[in-house]
Amino acid sequence: MKTKKHFFLLLLSFVLQNVQLECQQSISNEWSGAFYAGTGELFGIVKFQDNESLQPDDAAGRLLTRNVNSAWIKMAGSSSQKVYETLVQKIENDCVALKLSPQTCLDLKVSEGVQVVVDVQFQLNRKPLCDRHAAIDRLGPLQLRLLFPTPSAPQIRMEVYVFIEIFMTLDSATTLRTISRFPGYYACCCAVIAKN
């Protein structure tokens, strides 16, 4: 299992500095249709540079698409340490759509069609990682031995029982002999006698 430090290092490759944030009232895609911003809200589209294109099959791309729900933005070159949390609305190979709150729009003085230069830092959603760690913590000794066997641990033998109804025919005896030749299989016989 990857560590939190490993995930944070991957996310650092997607800290974007001095990128254009294009503000729009609506966004759309072919899968889920159109999204419209609420009153006072806007969508901010951050386009990746050519060398920062998101690849769905690399580790950083999978991390961004699966474990990131929000991002922090701030005006590039600003002396203020104030950052704004935005929700990640849509992730594509060449851009990310962020949902800007009404307060963020007022503070950054943005409206539809306006472009501003910002710094963006994506935030890791720790809940899936915590869920995985909790699942491991809840394992008992038997489950741990099955998941992480050691050479000195005794092997668990699987026994399969085969139940056969015998109607006192020659074929039934042949079937039992055939089953008894396979190691690990046991046959339990039940005799059924028909009344006339």
Topology of this structure?
Blueprint: H1 4-12, E1 15-24, E2 26-29, E3 33-36, E4 42-47, H2 59-67, E5 68-75, E6 84-91, E7 95-100, H3 102-108, E8 115-124, H4 127-137, H5 141-147, E9 160-166, H6 170-180, E10 185-191
Descriptive account of the structure:
28% of the residues lie in helices and 36% in strands. The protein is α+β, with helices and mostly antiparallel strands and 196 residues long. The chain has two domains: 4-130, Elongation Factor Tu (Ef-tu), domain 3 (Beta Barrel), CATH 2.40.30; 160-191, no CATH class. The protein has a six-stranded antiparallel barrel with strand order 1-4-7-6-5-8. Strands 2-3 form a two-stranded antiparallel sheet. Strands 9-10 form a two-stranded parallel ribbon. A hairpin with an 8-residue loop joins strand 5 and strand 6. The N and C termini lie far apart (67 Å). Mean pLDDT is 76; it is low at 164-170 and 191-196.
How would you summarize what this structure contains?
This protein has helices spanning about 5-10, 60-65, 100-110, 125-135, 140-145, 170-180; strands spanning about 15-25, 25-30, 35, 40-45, 70-75, 85-90, 95-100, 115-125, 160-165, 185-190. With about 200 residues, it is of the alpha+beta class.
